[in-house]
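tool_log.txt
---
The assistant was asked to compare two proteins side by side. It first ran the structure predictor on the initial sequence, then on the second. Raw inputs and outputs are pasted verbatim so the downstream comparison step can read them without reformatting.
(1)
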Amino acid sequence: PEERAENFKNSGNECLQNGGARWWDDAIEYYTRAIRCGSTNLPKVSIYFSNRAAVQILKKNWGYALRDSLE
C-alpha cells in the first residue's frame, strides 16, 4: 500500500503543477486514493491529507479543507 499511495500522491502533485485549476478535482481524487490505500506511515498519510486540504483551499471549499486539516 505504501508504494501505491505514493504513486497516487505523485499523480496528484502532477495535476497541480502542470494542469492548473481544471485539474484540481483530479488532484483531489488522487490524494483521496492515496489516503484510502491504507498506508501505516502516518507522516506520509498526513501529507496526503494536507495536500488534499491545500487543493480544497484553492477551490474555496473551506469546510472540506478544515476537515482534512484536522485528520
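(2)
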Amino acid sequence: LTDRALIVLANGLESNRFLQTMNLEQNSFGEDGLCVLCHALQNNHSLHRLYLAGNEISQTSLDQLIQLSSV
C-alpha cells in the first residue's frame, strides 16, 4: 500500500461505521499517507485497533496518532 492508495482507503474509512480492526502492517506508506489517515480517523468512531508496524513512519507521527486516539 502506497501513500496514494492509503488516501483512497482513508476516504472510505472516514464514512465507515462498521470496521473495528484494520491491519496496515508492512506496507510502503509514510508520513503523507499517515496524515490523510489521521484526518479520516477524526471522523471514524468504530475503528478500535489499527496495526501500522513496518511502515515508513516516524516516532513523532506515531505519537501524534496516539494523541489523536485519546481525544
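---
observation on (2): Strands lie at 21-23, 49-51. The longest strand covers residues 21-23.
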